[in-house]
Write a structure and sequence with these properties.
83 residues, 2 strands
Length: 83
């Protein structure tokens, strides 16, 4: 399941450099996560790095993008195939 950033985001900038898939970007008002790039850090780390560093706990799972760990691993392989 991809992650999402809620409107509790304080734009502290700590999540942006932590994302190994470059799924996080600055939105109009808060940071956003591209669900097509988010693998919850599967393939890179044991836990989502943005969640680890977020000081306000505003990065929950996105219920609109349910994915199994296997699907996240497949997405990771697709995203890193050219690297």
């Amino acid at each position: 399941m991809a992650l999402m950033i809620t409107d509790e985001c304080i734009n502290c900038d700590v999540c942006l450099p932590e994302c190994p898939n470059e799924a996080i970007s600055q939105g109009d008002e808060i940071y956003i996560i591209d669900p097509n790039k988010c693998t919850e850090c599967v393939g890179h780390f044991d836990t989502p790095q943005c969640v680890e560093v977020c000081p306000v706990d505003c990065i929950p799972f996105n219920p609109d993008y349910p994915e199994t760990r296997e699907q996240l691993q497949e997405k990771f392989l697709r995203l890193t195939a050219d690297k």
